Records
---
Amino acid sequence: MKKPYESITNYIYGKNTVFETICQNPKRINKIYFSDGINFDNKLKKINELAQKNSILVQFTNLNKFYKYFSGADKKIIFQGVVASVSPVEYIDFDEFLNKKSNTYRKIVILDGVEDPHNFGAIIRTLAAASFDAVIIPKHRSCPINSTVEKTSCGAVNHICIIKTNSLPSIVDTLKKNNWWIIAADGQSKDNYFDISYKDMNFAIILGAEGEGISKTLLNKADFKIKIPSNFESLNVSAACAIIVYESIRQIHQM
Amino acid sequence: MKKPYESITNYIYGKNTVFETICQNPKRINKIYFSDGINFDNKLKKINELAQKNSILVQFTNLNKFYKYFSGADKKIIFQGVVASVSPVEYIDFDEFLNKKSNTYRKIVILDGVEDPHNFGAIIRTLAAASFDAVIIPKHRSCPINSTVEKTSCGAVNHICIIKTNSLPSIVDTLKKNNWWIIAADGQSKDNYFDISYKDMNFAIILGAEGEGISKTLLNKADFKIKIPSNFESLNVSAACAIIVYESIRQIHQM
C-alpha cells in the first residue's frame, strides 16, 4: 500500500487551527469534516459559515478514520469536532521578502537545526503573537510543516512568512549586505539578551538546536552574541525564543 | 491484572533527566537500567560513577520492556540508553516553605489548572533556570509529576520546591498577609507585564490554563494584573511563563 508522505501534512484538526486557516487562507482548504451529530458551538458555527461563504465542501462523518493521518503523539488529542484537508503551506521566496517595501523595521528569526515539531509550532505561534515578519529554516535539518506543527502553532503558520533555504550562511550574508543586524543566541557569550538594543534596526535572531547550538559558520557571522542567564541547563528552544523575542518587543514598546 | 497508578510515575528516562536526579537527589533512585551493550558517552559514564558512589543497583538490559510504563506520546522517544526506577518527587509543605528564613526576596509561580504535562515540565525547567523558589499547584485540576513531566523538565523537578494545596485562594490570602505581592497574568488587563516592577519584594505570579485563564476568585485577590501584548491568539502558557519570569530576572539583574 502506497502512503505518500504528503498525506501526513495534508490534514489539520482542532477548532482554532481550522478557524485561523479558513480566516487567513481559505484557498488552502479543500474540504472540512465535522464530527457526526456534533452540537456546534460558536467557533464551529463560524467555521461552517465561512465554509459556505468560500464554497468549501463540508461533510459530517466519524472522525476516527483520520487517526491514521496523524503521528502517534497526536492520537490522544481530540480533534475538537473538526478536521480539514488542506494544501500545504506555501513557502515565501527570500528575495521577494527582502525586496518588499516596508515602512517599519523588520524582525525575523532563523532556526538552525530545530527538528522537533512541537518546538517549531510553538515558535511560530510566539512569532505571530509578537508580529515578527518571518521565520527562515534550512531545507535539511528542519521539521516539515506537518499536522503537529500546524496544531501546536494554533494556525499561526498562516500568519507569518515561512522561508526555506539551501544555505543559511548565504542568507545571513545577504541580510548583512542589506544592513540587517544578526543576533545569535549562544550560551557561551558574555552579553545577556537584555544588554543589547533591538531598536531602530532590521534584525535577525538565530536560534540553534538544543544541545548542539548554532553552527560555527553562522556564529562567526553574527554581529551580536547573547545568552539567557540560567542556573540550570540551557532553556528549551521555544522558551528561549519567547524570552528574546519579547525582550525586543518590550524595548520597542518602551521607546 | 492490577497496574497501580504509581507504576506510571516511578520510571524516568533520558541522560539529562537521570543525571540531574542522581546529582540532586540520589536517594530517589532505586535502580538504574542501561541499554544492553551500550557504549558509554561522558554523561552515561558519570551516571554510572555516581551510581557506584551512592550504592545504587545497576543492570544492563533491553530497555524496550519499559515502553509500557510511558504514555503514548513518549513511545517515539528513545530512552537515550538509560532508565531509572525512582521514588516519587516529594512535595514541600507550604508553611515550612513560607517560614524558612531567606536573605533575599523570593519569587514563586502559582499554576491554576495547567493540566498538560509538557507545559508543566517546561514551566518547571524555566523556573529552575531562573532560580525561582517554588511552584504551587492545586491538588485537583493539575498534572501529576509523571515521567513526561520529569523528562520535559530535564530533571528540574529535583531543583525546585513543588507545593500542592487543597485551596489556592487560602494560599494566596496567607501570602498576602505575609507581605507577598500577587501578580496575575490576565489577557484583559490594561498593564503590560513590563509595566510593573518586580524588584525589592517577594512575589507570586499566577498563570491560568489556556482558554479558561485564572479563576475569578484568584483574579480578584491579585495586586497587579498584567498581560502580554499579542497580535494573535493568547500565547502558550509555558511561553507566557518564560516571558514574564525572565522580565522579572531582567529587572533584578539591571538594578
---
Amino acid sequence: MIFRQLFEEDSSTYTYLLACEETGECVLIDPVIDTAERDLATLNDLGLNLTYTLETHIHADHLTGALKLKALTNSQIVVPAMDELPCADLGVQEGTAFKVGNIELHPLFTPGHTGTHHAYLLDNGMQHVLFTGDALLIEACGRTDFQSGDAVKLYKSITEKFFTLPDETLVYPAHDYEGRQITTIGQEKNRNPRVGDNRPQDEFVDIMHGLDLPYPRKIDFAVPGNELCGQCPDDVPEEYRGPCDTISLPMTEKRLRKSGDQG
Amino acid sequence: MIFRQLFEEDSSTYTYLLACEETGECVLIDPVIDTAERDLATLNDLGLNLTYTLETHIHADHLTGALKLKALTNSQIVVPAMDELPCADLGVQEGTAFKVGNIELHPLFTPGHTGTHHAYLLDNGMQHVLFTGDALLIEACGRTDFQSGDAVKLYKSITEKFFTLPDETLVYPAHDYEGRQITTIGQEKNRNPRVGDNRPQDEFVDIMHGLDLPYPRKIDFAVPGNELCGQCPDDVPEEYRGPCDTISLPMTEKRLRKSGDQG
C-alpha cells in the first residue's frame, strides 16, 4: 500500500492518499479544493491515476476537492450513503467494506460532529489504521455545535467505536492545528483531555457545551457547496474564490458535455 | 507483520515485538528484565517462539531482558557490533540489514545518547517505521550527560539520519514519560522543542548542557549488568532485585550446560 499524508494549510486539513500497489487503484480521503492540483501532482509523481475521492462528512471548514478532482480525472465521488447526495457516484455504509483494489476500508458510522459522520478503518490483520475524520482529533475532537452535532452521540462514537479498537491502532485525524500528524487509540485513551482517562459522558458533554467557539469562517458557503460535492456556490467570498475560479471552465465543459446539452 | 508495543512502567520503557507472519520468526527490541515473563506470555498468545532480542544501546535506566529471555527460550542476543559484548550472539552494523524472517531492519548508527547507540529502520517501500531508541523521543530526546553522551553527535544523528527520512515515517521511541506512544519524523521536525523547527546545533547543545538532570537511579548496576546482556550484578539494590532472583536458577543451569562444565 502506498500512503501519503497531505496537508492543506488554510483549514489545517489532512488529506490521505491510499493506493493499492497491485491494482494501481487509489483514493483521496477528504481532499480539499484548494490543494486539488497539488494532490494530482503527488499522484502523478507516484504514477497513479485517481480512482476515488472519499468523504468522512460534509465539511464546514473547507470545500471538498471531490468535484474538481472528478472534473480533472474522472474519479468517482464516494460519500456516506446516508448523506444521500445526488452528486455522488457511490455511497458507503457501516457493515460493508469499501474496496480500493486490495485495500479494504471499513466505514464506521460515528455521528456527533455531524449527524452522518463516518470514520474509516483499515484492518488487514497486520495493520490497524483508523481515519477518524473530525470525530477524534489529537488530544481533541470535532466541535458539536452545528450540522446536527451532538456531544452525547460523539462521546458514544469515540468511546464505543474507537476506544474498543486495539491500543496500537494508528489514528490519522482530518485536522491538526498544532503540527501533529498522528496518534493512537491507546494514546488518546490515556491523554485526550476531553474524553480520555475514562472521563464520564456528562463531563464530556459539559466540556463540549462550554467551548464557546467562534462561528466558522467558511460554513455559509462550504456546507451548501459540499452538499453539491464541492461545487462553488455563487456567494463564495472573494478571498476564498481562487480555487473555485480555476475549476469553473473544465467543470462546466465536462458537465455540459456529459449532460449532452452541448457539443 | 505482527506488531506490538509493550510498556514497562518502572522505567517507562517501550519494548517492541515484531514477527514475520510467513516464517514465524520474531524479535523483541529493547526488552526489560522486569517484564520478560509478560513479553513471553504475549508471544505465547500469538503462537510465537522468540527468535531474537535486539538492543538499541546499553541502557542505564533498566536491565535488559536479553539474557533472561535467552535462558527461558533460547533466543539469540543481538546488539550493535561495536559494543563488542562477548555475551551477545550476533552483532549488527549500519549498512547491513538485520533480517527477522522477511522483515528487514536497517541499523542506523546514531551516537549521542550513548557512544554506540543504534536505531532501526523498517522500510519495505510501503511502510517506513523507525525505532529510535533513546536518540529521539516524542518532543524530547535522550540525555547526553553520561555513557559517552555527546550533544553535538546527537544533534547530527537526529538531523542527518532521522530528519532526512520521509515526514510520514512512523517513529516509535524507547521511552515516553507522558503516556504518548508514537510520533512521526514530520511531527518532530515541526514540534520537537529541542531540535525541531530547524533549531541550530549550538542552541541544541546549550539546551542539553543546561538540563541539570538527576543522577539515574539504576545506572550503577544497570550499565555493568547490560554489558553482560542483562546479567544481574551482585550489587543490585534490594528494591530492584525481584526480576533478578527469578532468573538466577535457569540461567545458571543453562549456561553451565552450554559451557560443558557440568551435566
---
Amino acid sequence: MKLEVVTIGSELLLGQVVDTNAAELGRALAAAGAEVVRHVTVADRPEAIRAAVAESLERTGFVITTGGLGPTRDDMTKPLVAAIFGKPLRLDAAVLRSLEERFRRLGRPMPAVNRTQAEVPEGATVLPNPRGTAPGLWVEDAAGRVVVMLPGVPSEMRGLLAEQVLPRIAQRSPGTVVRSRTVRTAGVAESALAERVGAIEEDIAPLTLAYLPSADGVDLRVTAWGLREAEADRRLSAVATQLRARAGADAYGEDGTDLAAVVLDQLRARGARLVVAESCTGGLLGGRITAVPGASDVFIGGIVAYDNVVKSGTLDVSPELLERHGAVSEQVVSAMAQGVQRQFAVDAALAITGIAGPSGGTAEKPVGTVWMAARLGKEARALKRVVPGDRGEIRARAAQGALDLLRRLIADQR
Amino acid sequence: MKLEVVTIGSELLLGQVVDTNAAELGRALAAAGAEVVRHVTVADRPEAIRAAVAESLERTGFVITTGGLGPTRDDMTKPLVAAIFGKPLRLDAAVLRSLEERFRRLGRPMPAVNRTQAEVPEGATVLPNPRGTAPGLWVEDAAGRVVVMLPGVPSEMRGLLAEQVLPRIAQRSPGTVVRSRTVRTAGVAESALAERVGAIEEDIAPLTLAYLPSADGVDLRVTAWGLREAEADRRLSAVATQLRARAGADAYGEDGTDLAAVVLDQLRARGARLVVAESCTGGLLGGRITAVPGASDVFIGGIVAYDNVVKSGTLDVSPELLERHGAVSEQVVSAMAQGVQRQFAVDAALAITGIAGPSGGTAEKPVGTVWMAARLGKEARALKRVVPGDRGEIRARAAQGALDLLRRLIADQR
C-alpha cells in the first residue's frame, strides 16, 4: 500500500520547527506495511493546502495530513479537505460533549472558538484524541479514496497514529511490510566500501541498498519494500549477512547499535574496565560512553586534559615530549593513554588529542588532524587521521575513531 | 521571491533520518528574503525525483534539492536534473583536480567511483564544497529557471548554502525579509516565564511571539514577517529589549548564544580559569564547554568521576561522606567541586552528580535527581533539581543547569 503525507504549517517551511512528525509517520507506517512515497510540506495558506492534498490524493488515493486542526484562524485543514470530497461540515454532538468535558476537567470555561473543533465532514469517522482538543478525522469516499487528518502536536499525532490509524491501515493491507536493516561500519570511506561491496544492487533487487555516511562511519541500509513479513525478514537477513561479509572487520554492528555499546560489551566479556584521557574532545568521549545505560560496570572515568598543564601534571606526559613533538603527536597520545591507564590501574584506556579548529591548524598538522590511542593490558595502538568537517564533526569523528581503534585491538587479541 | 525545496532520500521517507536540512534551508532562506512555498521529500527512485523536481520547477521556477550527489549508485540527482534541462553531463577538469587533491590530503587513493562526482551538467555553475567530495551545482536555463543541487550531508549543505547559495539569492530578491530574534532563558519554567512576560502579543503585532522550551531552557522567539529589513530590525530590537527586561536575571543571551560561551566570557573577563568534575554527565559538560572555539584560554580540563573510586581517589571526596549521604547529595557534589578546584589550583570549578536513569532511581531520589555545584574562589553554591526527560535529556539539563549556576554566581559577585 502506497500513500503520501502532507504536513501543514508555516513554522515548518520557515524552519522554526523541525518536522519530526514526518519522520515518525514514515517509521511507523513502514513498520505497518505502508510505504510513504512522497512527503509534502505547505504553509498555512488555503490554496497551498488544497492543491497539495488534492494532488497527493490524485497520485496515491491515500493521504495523511498533520496540522491545521486547531481552533484558531490559521487552522483550516478540515474545511478544505471537506471541500475536496464535496462534503459539508456538520456539528458532531459527541465531539462537542467530549470537548466540553475536557475543559470542565481542566477547570476552564470553553472558549467559543473551540466549538469549530466539533465540526466534522459529513460521514467522516472521528478518531478520538484523549491528549488534546482536536480529534483526528478519517474521510473516505465511495471510490475508496482516503484522507486522514491528524493534529500537528507531536504527542497527539503519535497517540492517534498508534491507537487509531495504524490498526485501520493494517486491516487494509494485510501482510506486507516496508522494513530495513542496517550494517554499520567505521574506519572506511564510503567510496572504498562501495568498491568492496561491489555491484550488489541487481542481485538483491527488489531490495534496495543505500550508503549513509556520517560522523559515525558509513551505514549500509538495505530495504525491502512491500513484501510479506517473513519473506522480507528472510531476504534482509541474507543480504545483511552478505554485506557484513564484504565489509569484513570494518562492520561493527547492525541497526541502532552504538559503537560505544559494542566496546563496552567487549570489555565486559573480559571483565576489563575502561578509562579515557581527552584533549580536543574535552569530555565528549566519556559523554559518548556514558550515554549507554549500564556503562558503569565497565567505565570508571577519566581525565579531561585540555590544557598541557593537565597532560603533564595529571597524566604524567613529560614536558620534553610535549615540547619536542607537540601536543598532537603519536608520542603524546600514547603517553596520555599510558598515563591514564596507570593512574586508575585499569586494563583498558583510550586517549585523544587533535586540532578541532576552526583555528590552530598548520601546514604540517592541518585542522582535522587527530591522534588516537588505545591500550588493553600492555598492548597499545595509535592511529592518526585527518578527518573532514567542522569543529563538532571533527570531535565526533575523533571519539568514534578512538572507540573503533579499541574495538579492533580487542577483536584482534581474541 | 518564492521557491520550492526537494529533499531526496528513502531514509527520510522511512523516518530513519529526521530531515533537518529542510528546516535549516527554510530558516536561512527566510532570513535572505526568499520564501519556501513548498517542501517535497521523495525516495531514491529516478521517476519520483524527476517528477518532484519538474513539478516544483513548473510551479515556482526555482528549486533547491538536497541529497543524491554521492559517488554511489543510489545517488542519481545530477543526471536526472541534467535531463530535465536537456543538458549532457561533462567531466569537469577543475572539479576532478580538487577531488584528487582532497584524497591526496587525506592520504588515501581516490576510488574510481568518485570520478562520477566530477561530472557536471553542461553550463552549470560549480559551487565549491571544501567540506566534502560532492560540489554543489547551480543549473539555470535561458528562461531563468534554476535548480540548485546541494549534498545531503548537513554540514556540507550548510556551508554551501551560506557561502554560495544565499549570496546569489540575495542578489535576485532585494527588499523584504522574514526575520526572527530570540531571547534565551535558563532556570525558569515556561509557565512562570509566561506569567512574567504577560499578554504582550497584541502590543507587538504584526510581530509574533513563540515560547520554545528545550533542555537548554525556554527561548522566547519573536518573528517579523515580510517587512523591509531596517523596519524588521528596528521592531525586533525593541521587542527583544522588552522581553529581556521582563525575563530579568533568567535571560542569558540572544539568538544562537550558548550558555557555555557566556560563562567562558564572564570568566575570561576576570582572568579566571575553569575546571569540572563530572559523574552522571560522564564528560558531557567538558564536551559542551570545549565545543566553544577558543575555550582553551579559560578551560583547563577536569575529572570524569563516574565511579565512586574516582570521586574518593582522585577528587578526595571522603568515603564516609559517600557512605553517609550517597553519591547524589549536596555534600558530595560540594566536595567534588572543592576537590577538583584544589587539584588544579584554579579559580572556578563546576561539579555534577545525579541519577540519569533509566534505572537507579529511588522514592527519595527519583531518576532525574541532579545535584550541581559551582565555585568561584572561596564562594560556593549547590543546587538540586529533579528534571524531566530521558537519559540524554536529563544529562543535557544537568550540564546546562551547572553552567547557569556558575553564571548567576559570577553575576551576583559583580
---
Amino acid sequence: MKSPTDILGRLDEERRMVNLEIQKTLVGKPDRLYSAARHLCLAGGKKVRPILCILSCRAVGGATEQAVRTSAAIELIHTFTLIHDDIMDNDDMRRGKPSVHKTYGLPTAILAGDLLYAKGYEICDPKTVYILAKATSEICEGQELDMSFEERTDVSEADYMEMIEKKTAVLLRAAAESGAVIGGATEKQAKSLASYGLNLGLAFQMQDDILGVTADEKKLGKPVGSDIVEGKKSLIAIKAIQSLPEAEKKELLKILKKKNNPESEINTAVRLFHESGAIDYCRKKAEEYVKNAKDSLKDLPKTESREDLYRIADYVIKREL
Amino acid sequence: MKSPTDILGRLDEERRMVNLEIQKTLVGKPDRLYSAARHLCLAGGKKVRPILCILSCRAVGGATEQAVRTSAAIELIHTFTLIHDDIMDNDDMRRGKPSVHKTYGLPTAILAGDLLYAKGYEICDPKTVYILAKATSEICEGQELDMSFEERTDVSEADYMEMIEKKTAVLLRAAAESGAVIGGATEKQAKSLASYGLNLGLAFQMQDDILGVTADEKKLGKPVGSDIVEGKKSLIAIKAIQSLPEAEKKELLKILKKKNNPESEINTAVRLFHESGAIDYCRKKAEEYVKNAKDSLKDLPKTESREDLYRIADYVIKREL
C-alpha cells in the first residue's frame, strides 16, 4: 500500500478526466466572462471532491465514466463558492494567483461564480440535483455564520462545528453521496458514504485551519495567517481563547479584532496558538473525525476503491497543502 | 374578454400559490441571510415568469398544482439575478425599496442571491433542471455583454438583441418551456411555448427600457433615467445615436458617457430619445415581437389558458410598470 500522500498521484487519470470535462464545459462567449470562470478551475487544485464522487461511485459497483460529469459539476460548484468567498472575505490570493475579483474586477467575478454554478447544473446527473442544491444552500448558511463570527468573541466549539459542517463538510458529503447514487448504491450504502464524506469534510476543514497558520506560504498559495488578519474564529482560535491565561488571552483577542495586522502580530498569534495547546487539540479532533470517516465504510464491499477512500482519509490530515 | 391590464388581477390566485411556496421555501437560519433572501421576493413584483410557467403547463393539459413549485423556483432564480445585477450596476433602489446590498451590505447580498439560486434547484421539478440551468448560464453571458456595452459607442441593434435575448428573454422562454414539459407537452408544443416565451421576453425588455425613461418614478420603483446615468446601450439609445444629427448625437453620447448626471441632462437625453423617433421605433419593434409570440401559440388547443397567454402578450407592451 502506498503512503497516504501518494494517493492523489495514484488518481491522476481520474483527475485528468475531470479536468477535461471542466475544460469542455467552460467554453463560450463573452471571452472575458469565460476566462474569469476558467481562472481558478484550471489553476490546479487537488480535486478532492470530484475524486470522492468517482471513488464512491466505484465503491458501490458503478463505473468511473458514470460519475465524471457530476464530479466536474461538483468542482464547478466548489469553485463558485471560492470565488464568491474571496470577494466577501477580501482575499487577494488563491492557489498562488491573484483571486478572480482582483484580476477581473468585482462585477465579472460575481458573474463568473454564478456562471460556474449554473454550468454545474447543466452537466450534473439529474438524480443528484437535490443533493447538490441542498448542500449549496447550507454552504451559504455556513459562510454567513463564518462572517458573523468575525465580530463575536463568544463563539463556542459547537458553533464552530456547525459552521464548518455547513461551509465545508456538506459539499464533501454531497460529493460522496452523489457518487453513490450514480453508482446504484443501496440506501444504506449511500448513507455510509454520505457519513464518510461529512466526517472527512470536518477533518479537512480543521486541517485547512491548521495549515493556514503553520504551512509554508509557497505551498499554501496565499499568505500565512490570513484567518488571523480577518479575525476568523477557527477552532484553534476558540480553543486558544479558552485556554490562555488572562493577559495572553487579551493580547490574542486584540490581534484577532484588528484588521491589517503587521507580521509581528501574526507571529505572536501563531505562537499563542501553539503554546495554548490549541493546535494539538485541533489535530486530535481532526484525527477523530478521520477515524469516524473510515468507520463509516466498514460495511462496504472490500474493493480497491474503498481502500482509496481509506487512503484519502489518511491523506486529509497528513497533507501539507 | 377583460382588458389586457386586468390579466394579472385575473391570476391573483395563482400568484398567491406561488408566493406561499416562496414563503415556505425561504425559512431558515441564520436569520440575517434569510431576511436578505426574502427582502425582494416578498416586495411585490408581478410574478410574470411563474404565471407563464403555470399557464404553459395548463395550456398543454397539465394542472396548476404540478407547476407551482417550479414556478416558485423560477421566481427565486429571477430574484437571484436581480440582487446580483443591482450590485454590479450599483443600483440602490428596486421595487420601491433600497436594494438588498444597500440594506444588508455586499457580502450578505451576494450570499442571499446564491441562496435563492440554490433553493430554486431544491424545489424545481428535476425534468426542468437543464432548461433552467442553461437559461441561467445565458443570463450571466447577457449581463456581461450589457456591462461591456456601457464602455462602447458602436453597439448595433443586433448586439442589443443578442444581449436582451440572453439577459431577459431566455428566462421567460425557460419559464414557458418548463411549464410545458411539466404539463406533458409534445415536443412540438414545448417548442411553441418556448418560442412564445422568448418573443414575449424580447418585447418585455424593450417595454422595460421604454418605461425606464418615460414612466412615473413612483410606479417604476426606481429613479427614471437610471439607464442613462449608467450609460446602458438600450435599443432606444442605439437608435437615437444612429438617427440624430451630428451635434445632438454628440450631446447624447456625452451624457451617456458621463456618470452621476444631473436631472437636466437626463431630461435632455429623454427629449432626444423622443425627438429622434427612437422611442416610437422601439415600441413598434416590441409590438412585432408580441405578434410573433402570439403566432407561436396558434397550434395549441383552444383553452382559457391559451387566451390568458394572449392577454399577457398584450399586457406586456401596455403595462405602465
